[in-house]
Amino acid sequence: MLTDLTENPTCIECGLCREVCPVFQTQRQEEYSPRGRAILGYAGLQTLVFYQCTLCRACRAICPVEHDPSGETLRAGLISAGIETEANQLMIANIRTYGNPFGPLAEGELPKTLTCC
Ligand code: SF4
Ligand code: SF4
């Protein structure tokens, strides 16, 4: 679901979401936290960091103002601006060409790499 950013409650930068975000738990850098993502979004920056989100919405569940991480909306903006990871481009191309995200596979063959955005 795409979030209308004009109706999204403003992040008050309390930081509660950092402790429930699985991405921040592994990266431990503010730019990967929901709060950091909100700040980057308010600054109008379009960055590959927005792809570093599982879309789990655990941050929204704990957020006192119910700020929506709006990951889908931010990614849609990136795609519109032509900002994509190489892995994402390859995955989409494979789906279009081979009908799967991995590329050409023989019957029963396992993919050598797992492709994700
Ligand atoms: S997104 Fe919500 S929980 Fe996270 S810093 Fe902003 S107001 Fe606090
Ligand atoms: S929706 Fe994204 S930013 Fe929010 S907790 Fe999940 S991974 Fe973190």
Automatic annotation (TrEMBL):
GO terms for molecular function: iron-sulfur cluster binding. Pfam families: Fer4_8 (PF13183). One of its GO terms (cellular component) is plasma membrane. Residues 1-31 form the 4Fe-4S ferredoxin-type domain. This is 4Fe-4S ferredoxin-type domain-containing protein. SUPFAM superfamilies: alpha-helical ferredoxin.
